[in-house]
Write a structure and sequence with these properties.
heterodimer, A: mainly alpha, B: elongated
Chain lengths: ~140, ~160
């Protein structure tokens, strides 16, 4: 193994990934911050709270979760930090998103790897809901 | 108000990006070292007890570990290759896909949320245990019912 080449590649990977993240996170940050000054976030809280309380989350947690599933994990990050969640809430949102995200892209990959995409989606959604319920009960406070 | 939005968004996005860069750069660096050193080839045999519990064949270990560590895209490549070489049964294929759908790229994605204040251990343990439990139950249900495999697999292109 050519150590110098590998170190170079490693640094390149790190910088590239950070850059890819920045390209998504910064613009989404501006959009979400703008939304905070409109009634949209309050409206989301009101509409979704009855459901999200079952998994220990305020209604506006719907926003990062929907973004992560419709798009990818990256833009969900500014949607979490721009709204103020507690550490427990971020942990629950994170676990839910980790189990179930990027559905359009990852379903195509799952199909390529030989599985029936929509059935994998159902398994992932159910697992994410289950994780939310369990963590809400276990983490208390 | 407009100025406030610009100010708040720029300050916070810089802060968030700094937090993330601090964690993501070293992780991507280490993952690259692991990839170039073929580390997973060398350690995948240690994970055979786990694959056995999950009703998977020995040959499924490597694609599974690659997906867990490097992510779905990279894992899918290894799965397709192994399947084309005839080393994976239809049951292997279903169970790997279900497990990796739930649990992939564990370092990169988990630390991304940890960087913004989530508890990495809670996320990691919950996700891994759920993936193991669901794959185990599905594997158990599929054992001895080969016809049911058709419910979840499709022919590889």
């Amino acid at each position: 193994m050519d150590f110098k080449r590998v170190v170079k590649l490693g640094i390149k990977d790190g910088v590239e990934t950070t850059w890819e993240l920045a390209k998504v996170i910064v613009p989404v940050y501006f959009i979400i911050t703008f939304l905070k000054y409109t009634p949209i976030i309050d409206w989301m809280t009101e509409v979704f709270q009855p459901v999200t309380l079952l998994i220990g989350l305020p209604g506006e947690a719907t926003l990062p979760i929907v973004i992560a599933n419709a798009l990818t994990v990256y833009p969900a990050i500014p949607a979490i930090t721009a709204l103020s969640f507690t550490s427990k809430e971020i942990t629950i949102i994170g676990t839910i998103i980790l189990l179930c995200h990027s559905l359009p892209v990852e379903t195509v990959i799952a199909k390529k790897a030989g599985s029936i995409g929509w059935k994998i989606i159902i398994i992932r959604i159910l697992a994410a809901i289950l994780a939310g319920i369990i963590l809400n009960l276990m983490m208390g406070g | 108000m407009f100025v406030d939005i610009i100010k708040e968004a720029s300050m916070n996005s810089i802060y968030t990006m700094a937090q993330i860069a601090f964690i993501v750069m070293p992780i991507m660096f280490i993952l690259r070292l692991a990839k170039e050193a073929n580390l997973l080839n060398k350690i995948s045999s240690y994970f055979e007890p786990l694959t056995k519990i999950l009703y998977l064949s020995k040959e499924a270990t490597f694609p599974l570990i690659v997906g867990i560590v490097f992510g779905l895209t990279y894992g899918a490549g290894v799965i397709v290759q192994a399947a084309k070489e005839g080393r994976l049964s239809p049951k292997d294929l279903i169970l790997i896909n279900v497990f990796l759908g739930l649990n992939h790229a564990i370092f990169e994605d988990t630390f991304l949320f940890a960087a913004i204040g989530a508890n990495a251990w809670v996320m990691f343990i919950t996700r891994t245990l759920l993936a193991i439990l669901i794959t185990y139950l599905l594997g158990k249900w599929l054992t001895g019912k080969e016809k049911k495999e058709m419910l979840l697999t499709r022919p590889l292109a």
